Amino acid sequence: MAIQVPNQPAPPLFPDLPADGQKKARRYGRIRHPIWSEHKAKFIQQYLRFFVQVTKHGAYIDGFAGPQNAGQSDAWSAALVLQSEPKWLRHFFLCEKSKSGLSALRKLKQMQPEPRSSTGRKLYRNIEIWPGDFNESVVKILKGGKITQKEATFCLLDQRMFECHWETVKKLAAYKEPPNNKIELLYFLGVGWLHRSLSGIRNTEKMEKWWGSKGWEKLRTMKHVDIAELVRERFQKELGYQFAAAYPIYDRESGNRVMYYMVHASDHDEAPMLMVRAHHKAVRSLPKEIQEMIQFPR
Predict the structure, then answer these.
(1) What residues form DSSP beta bridges with 157?
(2) What's the topology of domain 37-290?
């Protein structure tokens, strides 16, 4: 039986921006289909493929780039992004603090073939491995001058629980100066483990760095969807992004429970529709029996 999508979804995916003189945010139907956890990396890869077809160039920052599941290269975002076509992303900053993750990244870099266009022309590409805490490395990356103000830039923040400081997100959001688009962000919020992790917290300083201020305790009594909406709203109101949306990521082995939300923030006019297209592409890669349960929004 097909899942019915309401004609007037509420709340809207991209609420209007209140400030006068700003562009009116586009509205798109809320995404209601599951992306299984093993499709997460392919979802990112698909979006970046669309992203570079519009920009024709770009830089990619991965704050937590090591493989999260050893032996599952088809679920490793860094590996899939590097092999994605067309190979127009020029600068890669792959950050990791674990020894095993760094070892995997160095092997991945060595395995990369010389990038060439569809016509055989050699393409420029630079891959940098950054060891250490990303919250510290990000300052050096941004101050290094290799990411220009005009270069389209994408940053993946697929953090383990509470690893990415809010100050780090703020630095990324503030790097580009108007009228240039901000660094585009994909921020993963692990709601599937959030309440259990919060219940055992003893280090309040760590939590304040993650949340960006005091008041994180209120999350203990909030529903997952409300936490995701609060974080999404912060990307617009606090960080000033034109568009922000939270996409639920499900785990079919846990009764199709929402395990985390992917918060996508961008200033690019085409970004919301590109993300919707990437989502549809990822859903269409699911088994046929799962696709039959899905009704795409129009």
Answers:
(1) 187
(2) Rossmann fold (3.40.50)
Domain spans in the chain, listed from the N-terminal domain onward: 37-290
Q: Which residue has the tokens 């990038």?
A: 115
pTM for this predicted structure: 0.82
Both tokens of 68, joined, read 């999260």
Is the separation of the CB atoms in 234 and 216 below 8 Å? no
CA atoms within 13 A on the CB side of 271: 24
Sign of dihedral through CA atoms 65, 69, 71, 77? negative
Contact indicator for 262, 188 with CB cutoff of 8 Å: yes
Q: State phi, psi for 72 to the nearest 5 degrees.
A: -115, 75
pLDDT in tens, 237-271: 999 999 999 888 777 665 567 888 889 999 999 89
Residues 6+ apart with CB under 8 A from 1: 293
Token code pair at residue 215: 């008041």
* Token pair listed for 93: 């900053």
C-alpha separations of 294 from 39, 62, 268 in Å:
16, 31, 28
